[in-house]
Amino acid sequence: MEIRKATFKEVQQIRKHALIVLKESTMDHVHPTAEKARYMTPSLDGSSSYLVAVEDGELLGWIGVGTTFDFYTDKMVGIMTELYVYPHARRKGIAEQLCRQALVNFQREGYENVQLNVFSGNPAKALYDQLGFQDVATLMEKKL
């Protein structure tokens, strides 16, 4: 398996799955719409991109990576915006390999911190915990 930056064609394939990714990643806390899906995908303006996991020419999964300014620390930080592995390719360590490669890339580029957002109940949180991510803030909600 190879992990590398996504090609234009692969980005188009990834974007076709944006609604599915939005629905799965938000654990039904968000009603998926095309507008919300567009907002969550990396802009690919140079500050963000996708890393893909590919085997024998088949796209298995991807991770969105980019940068943002952290107003709490007054520093630029790396961000992991989207992690997805096709259902048939899950439970093979692909998500972990994508995350680890993203972290290596961020470290190589000189970032001291990497952030991500994960919804309550998302099974990917266990992976993020295993990789050393720590809770920084908690968004709480009460339905009325």
UniProtKB/TrEMBL annotation:
Alphabetized Pfam families for the sequence: Acetyltransf_1
Protein name according to UniProt: GNAT family N-acetyltransferase
Protein origin, superkingdom: Bacteria
Keyword annotations from UniProtKB, A to Z: Acyltransferase, Transferase
Matching InterPro entries: Acyl_CoA_acyltransferase, Bact_Acetyltransf, GNAT_dom
PROSITE patterns: GNAT (PS51186)
Domain N-acetyltransferase intervals: 1-144
Gene3D superfamilies to which the protein is assigned, alphabetical: 3.40.630.30
